[in-house]
Every structure is written in structure tokens, then in C-alpha cells.
């Protein structure tokens, strides 16, 4: 876990953080798998606290039975990784703006 030294986040900033993480996770999954092959795609983002904020991202992915040779866990893990990276970039942006 990385400490960014952020100010306390507002409710709006926390909502944007969760939305950004979810959008990036969804985009990552769908960049690897056509949506017609996705049976279930649930992405959950949850925060605890405002200073420090703790972000949890879960990706539940199930594919149609006709889909073969797809590494579901690897794709879900990549989606989580990309979502955390996007969340960190968003938080860095908030930090830069709070210092000006």
C-alpha cells in the first residue's frame, strides 16, 4: 500500500474515485473479451475512511460456456491492477490541485 499524503477527501471525490476505478476495470476486461462472451461482469469498488482512504476493488467475471482458452483469473487480476493504477492517478491529481 502506498501513502500519498492527501487531504481529507470529499464525498464527491470518493464517488469519482470509485467510478473511475470501476470504469477502468470494465474497459480492461472488455478489451480482452468481447461483451457477447461475458455472462457475468460485476465490479465492486468500496472505500473506507476519508483520511486515509482505503479502496477495495473486486472483479467477478464469468464467461459463456462456449468461450474457450481464456484465462479469466488473469484478466480479472489485470482489471484490478489497472483500476488501482487509475485510482492512484486520480488521487495524485487531487493532491496536485490541493497544493496550488
Please, could you describe this protein's structure?
With 100 residues, this protein is an alpha+beta fold. The protein has one domain: GMP Synthetase, Chain A, domain 3. The chain has helices at 11-32, 72-98; strands at residues 38-48, 54-63. The protein has a two-stranded antiparallel sheet with strand order 1-2. A hairpin with a 5-residue loop joins strand 1 and strand 2. Helix 1 (11-32) runs antiparallel to helix 2. The model has no long low-confidence stretch (mean pLDDT 88).
Number of strands: 2
What form results from the Cα inertia axes?
elongated
For CATH, the homologous superfamily is named as: MTH677-like
Mean pLDDT: 88
Features of this protein?
single chain, 100 residues, alpha+beta, GMP Synthetase, Chain A, domain 3, two-stranded antiparallel ribbon, 2 strands, 49% helix
Amino acid at each position: 500500500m502506498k501513502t500519498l499524503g492527501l487531504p481529507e477527501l470529499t464525498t464527491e471525490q470518493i464517488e469519482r474515485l470509485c467510478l473511475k476505478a470501476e470504469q477502468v476495470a470494465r474497459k480492461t476486461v472488455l478489451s480482452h473479451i468481447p461483451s457477447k462472451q461475458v455472462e457475468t461482469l460485476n465490479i465492486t469498488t468500496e472505500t473506507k475512511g476519508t483520511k486515509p482512504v482505503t479502496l477495495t476493488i473486486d472483479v467477478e467475471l464469468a464467461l459463456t460456456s462456449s468461450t474457450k482458452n481464456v484465462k479469466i483469473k488473469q484478466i480479472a487480476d489485470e482489471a484490478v491492477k489497472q483500476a488501482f493504477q487509475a485510482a492512484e492517478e486520480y488521487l495524485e491529481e487531487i493532491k496536485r490541485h490541493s497544493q496550488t
